[in-house]
Amino acid sequence: MRFTVLAFPPVFWQGATPPPFLTPDTCPLISDYLIPEMYELLIGLRYTRARRRNHFISFISFSSMLGVALGVTALIVVLSVMNGFQKELRTRILSVASHLQIVGAEGSLSNWERVGREAEAHPDVLAAAPYVQAQSMLAANQEVRGVLVRGIEPAREEKVADFAGNMAAGRLESLAPGAFGIVLGSELARALRVQPGDKVTVIAPQGTVTPMGMTPRLKAFTVTGIFEVGMFEYDSGLALIHLDDAQRLYRMGDNVSGVRLKLADLFAAPRVNRELAGMVNADAYLTDWTRSHANFFRAVQIEKNMMFIILSLIVAVAAFNIVSTLVMAVTDKEADIAILRTLGASPGSIMAIFMVQGALIGSIGLALGVAGGVSLALNIDVVVPFIERVLGTQILAKDVYYISDLPSDLQWGDVLGVTAISFILALLATIYPSWRASRLQPAEALRYE
Q: Does the residue 324 lie in any domain?
């Protein structure tokens, strides 16, 4: 009968050198000679570093590390791109729509200057601007389009919206009271086939009573500018005129439709909304951007969550590879496990040894994946153009997509979440093979050695 003696490196022993003979008198238990609560970790690390006889196990271990790394990298990059798109869309929408609006209960708000001052008294409100808004029709060159006409004061509007920074032609300041100038969205101007300097006819919904009956009210406006914010809803259906002209066109007198507010923190809009409800003394209701665009942003968030769940399956598949690696490692180390049990190692210690080995495989892949994902997410504006030059194509064509550059917004909360879930999956993958190793009977393993 042939016996295998498991030799430990000197670092495992508490003494300077191991005892000369491994007999029941000199070595009753392995824990008497090994550093307490440390030998499981040391042996697990040794098994991971050691050169295996079976090179296939090494290949599976490398594949498991690579799978975890690729899965984590993909998760971080995709979540960062989703965050980037969400941030870009939110910025473009809120460059036109206000953070918070005070709207007249009957579509008309009087004493709007007092209402604006009361709102600006709140510490989170940066600016307020009045507006008049109504549905109308625009006609030019035998083309007719239904649009939303908004009357603004350019000086105040620049403080709550970013129209001035999105002017494709002309200037927002060209809107002057009594001049009847109009600024159109780029898609709307293209549909009406007009350029700055051309005339368009605004057809107001309020009619004029004449002896011939009710006739529509028409007014000719001169196109003074064209804006492009990158959102089709606004570029194709919004027109801007001066507040005085809008009040005159829609017969509102000195009243306005409401007051638009800009906040220091747009995510505080629901809280500010509740607080302003008790500060503003007017027959009006308050609405913020989280309500007016709730379905859109909820859909984007749901899509992000679903992408996270789907891509987490990549990490789960890599975790299954860790299971295969450890099962084969346990089979390869049966004799060593039996000798450890004979020397007094408990089943829990054997289980801990292989859990350390599997956790190390997962941790290495996780570290590589986090490093790669963070690096790629932070430099995606360099990587994507390089790929486009190599492939000779554009991923987001400017003539198709309004967002032609792939945005990325790395959030460390997402990185921590991906890291935690990936590590838990890798740790769970070690439980069954480690439990199987702890159930190994020494006599059965050494019978044919």
A: yes
